[in-house]
UniProtKB/TrEMBL annotation:
UniProt keyword DNA damage present: no
Oligomer and partners: Homopentamer.
Leader sequence segment: none
Protein name: Large-conductance mechanosensitive channel
GO molecular function term, any single one: mechanosensitive monoatomic ion channel activity
InterPro entries named among the record's database cross-references: Mechanosensitive_channel_CS (IPR019823), MS_channel (IPR001185), MSC/AndL (IPR037673), MscL_channel (IPR036019)
Domain of life: Bacteria
Subcellular locations according to the entry: Cell membrane
Amino acid sequence: MLKGFRDFIARGNVIDLAVAVVIGAAFTAVVTSIVENLINPLIGLVFNAESLNTALILEIGYAKFKFGAIIGSLISFLAVAAVVYFVFVYPMNTLREHQEARAKTKGAPEEDAPPPSEAQLLTEIRDLLAADARRGRGTGD
């Protein structure tokens, strides 16, 4: 039972996930700071409020509908999504495309190309042996 748990933890994808969670938490703190200390005050200037949390509040009876807080959360989400895309996803996709292009220019076989059949391989081996025999490099030396 412990061996199975150790194998599970030692798999790369579990460790990658743990690193992603830690980096995500740290990154969220940075984005939250940017939203709270830069974006919220700028928008607060427009709505004459300290931050979006205190702007656009609709009070009906005892209920308070905080539309400014919702807008602030949406801005925070879009900021996180944009940074993740432009810092992580886009560069990785570009790197992968460059590696694939480099592999194709070096003459690497296409991944989609089917492997040669047994008959094609045997024909190629026969032709190579015949060429060696013609050059005097027969196998009988």
